[in-house]
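In response to a reviewer's request, we include the raw inputs and outputs for one of the modeled complexes. The four entities were modeled together in a single run.
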Amino acid sequence: MKATIRNVAKLAGVAPSTVSHYLNHTAQLAPGTAQNVERAIAALNYRVNLGARSLRLKKTHSIGLIIPNISTPFFGELAAMVESVLWDRGYQMLLSLSARDVNREMSHLTNFVSRQVDGILVVYNQEQEQRAQNVRSLAVPVVFLDRVVRGAPSVATDNYLGGQLAAQHLRKLGHRQIAMLCGQSDIQNVIDRMAGFNDELRRDGVAVDPAHVLHGAQDLELGSRVSELFSRPPSPTAVFATNDIVAIGAWCGLIALGKRVPQDVSLVGFDDVEMSRFLVPPLTTVAQPAAVIGRKAVDLLLDLIDRKQALAPADGNTILLEPTLNVRGSTGILEKGGDPAVPLY
Amino acid sequence: MKATIRNVAKLAGVAPSTVSHYLNHTAQLAPGTAQNVERAIAALNYRVNLGARSLRLKKTHSIGLIIPNISTPFFGELAAMVESVLWDRGYQMLLSLSARDVNREMSHLTNFVSRQVDGILVVYNQEQEQRAQNVRSLAVPVVFLDRVVRGAPSVATDNYLGGQLAAQHLRKLGHRQIAMLCGQSDIQNVIDRMAGFNDELRRDGVAVDPAHVLHGAQDLELGSRVSELFSRPPSPTAVFATNDIVAIGAWCGLIALGKRVPQDVSLVGFDDVEMSRFLVPPLTTVAQPAAVIGRKAVDLLLDLIDRKQALAPADGNTILLEPTLNVRGSTGILEKGGDPAVPLY
DNA sequence: TCTGGCTGTCGGAGCGTTATCCCCGTGAGG
DNA sequence: CCTCACGGGGATAACGCTCCGACAGCCAGA
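The model returned the following structure tokens for the whole complex.
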């Protein structure tokens, strides 16, 4: 006998609606009746069919998450927190990876809509202009992660501020010859980090030599190219990587070059992935609160869902979280070759 | 007007079943009719409700994946491959994290069943005895990942062989004082790696000094405790870590101690995470083919689903994949202090 | 004793699909 | 001119669940 609510009812000698009431605590049953229902449920090993329930209730208790990939620690941490918070609040996470492919992303989006998810969280790659537009036509609440989208709910790090923090720190240590390793510098986030960094340096009259700027993917390989920076003088005394993975790659590259960190070269990363703390010396890095972003985004999304005000683009819907600078051992006071006029910190 | 198949039909002046036929290519429509339907679909921005379809078809085209966490690179890679293959074959991945908590795991399992997933992939933490039993009662095809479960379909690495490979390599290089860093040594996988390693050494008459064995979690912290191994002689000349993260931690720890890799100490890891290649020197490690595991597991599961032979515990259902040893720079020939009687490789 | 409200339970409609069966019209073949 | 096959399209019954309204039976208060 198949485990449906109707069969449970039959076995317990009651109506299906009574079983439903029992399951949902939506009515008080007489003790005897309740026992019969319990027994029938156990006998059939019955579990409610959430698909059918969803169809009736127009609510699936599922949320779609789209991220570019899962191996970048930042996204991994984000996804983990999203899953955890969703589960605590009774939702299932559907995970899809976009691989930074806009078409794939769009397919996932419409697929989610077809699956009747209650809401969508997305780290979007679409061009700025089209974002809000495309998504509004989905008629499902959407919250953007790790991206700022005007007129749409989004939760992100203040990357510009993060860049500023890194710059302030290096300047205070007396560095003037500073290099940048820019991973994925076509992405707005990275652009903001670079802008914050450059603007802050410029405020002190320091400019980054264009020859000291390397572009590439957000991977260890870009970092290992740090050697190129030392091929001809003046060599940089500090390196800012827009991403911890790149910074770790740079760290490996510097060691391979025989450079000491931080005596010869100071190194600052961005993200604060777990491994940063375990380098020797540990990496100074701008901490991006992935877990907080995940938590806040879920809170915001579930809020929108509950209040059905999903598509109202209230300005308060954009949450910008402040990164913090975690100063560790990879940065130090400039020892020699620095401008003597600059007071050391 | 709400975007349902009925409304589309009304707008196109046909019956709902005709629209259904159109959508599923299950019947040929007259060109004019087809156009009308197309137009109506576009006008209403209609997308089929997969929930309703699933209810009718008893097939959700969704698969549940349960892994302990997402930040361990191995699991991340696994999940990424699973998502990718599933998506290619028209399935959606539901991801849940167990945090190695058996209860949480069981909840996720029953939740998946309630959601009518077509199949489940799980990296299981349940005790060996209960595994097959518990899961069989779910009445849904289940494939175990990264674990060998007797009498149930599973896809895993041959961890014992992996341990052997590491041992063979170190022996050939002449090492006799060998330490082990055992992350999460209560897990069968790790037990197998240690067993393979020890057995292979013993075959050559070498035994690991119990004082040279450290246990802990699978994290960088355990690795950094490598310093404890050098507190009193004899010091090990080689270290085997049952996991790359631990190995990387050990690498950091060794550098902090002033030990050179591989001149003073050789180091072997397990997993071959991306970062291994970027250490200086790069890490010799046993590669566990996470991507292959993911792909094979999905293939196996979808196969079971299609053939409805899900619960037949055919022995051929266990797939054991061979790991490979990637020899890189972190291991070298024993230079001094080794047993001179041993021919160097 | 009658009324009215409360408690426990039931029947049925409907959520949005699709599969099955049926029907109508057309054109070819006898 | 009749038959029959076939192609295009419709009506209907589920799929498993929940909500709504209804209806007995019961007890308290008048």
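As requested, we also summarize the result in words. The CA atoms of residues 98 and 107 of chain A lie 9 Å apart. Residues 4-6, 16-17, 20-21, 24, 26, 48-57 of chain A lie near DNA strand D (CB under 10 Å from a C1').
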